[in-house]
Amino acid sequence: MAAESATDRALIARLAAHTKWAGTEDRTAATAAARAAFVDHFEREVDPDGVLDPAERAARAASAKKAFYTRMALRSAQVRRARRKARNVNTTSPATA
After folding, report:
1. pLDDT for residue 24 is more than 80
2. Residue 21: which residues within 8 A CB-CB, separation 6 or more?
3. Is the pLDDT of residue 92 over 90?
4. Which residue ranges make up each domain of the chain?
5. Average pLDDT over residues 25-44
6. With contact defined as beta carbons under 8 Å apart, do 68 and 42 qualify?
7. 3-state secondary structure string, 51-67?
8. pLDDT tier for residue 83 given thresholds of 50, 70 and 90
């Protein structure tokens, strides 16, 4: 199946994902390695030399993960705000402004 456009590629990828998950018995087991790697990433970020106590490393990794998601939320809010502003500028006519 040759993808001719970005839209086609996105639809093909979505189809593949739905097909995979339709045949997956244990979703938790299927994503366990990815979830572990995600946690490991934050642990390596806060303790690259592996010298911290495991409990301290886990606490710092949890904070790093919260910072990651908070940063994503901030960027998302900024983009939504910019899009809303652009949409309002484009729909406001000079007579009503």
Report:
1. yes
2. 27
3. no
4. 27-91
5. 97
6. yes
7. CCCHHHHHHHHHHHHHH
8. very high
Under 8 Å between Cβ of 61 and 39 = yes
**Three-point CA angle 58, 59, 63, nearest 5°:** 115
Query: Cβ-count burial of 42 within 10 angstroms (0-12 exposed, 13-18 middle, 19+ buried)?
Result: buried
Structure tokens at 96: 């009503």
**Rounded Cα–Cα distance for residues 72 and 86 (Å):** 21
Residue 1 reports pLDDT greater than 80: no
Length of the chain: 97
| 71 alpha carbon, distance to own chain's centre | 11
Cβ contact 63:69 at 8 Å: no
- Is the pLDDT assigned to residue 97 strictly greater than 80? no
Residue that the structure tokens 């086609």 belong to:
8
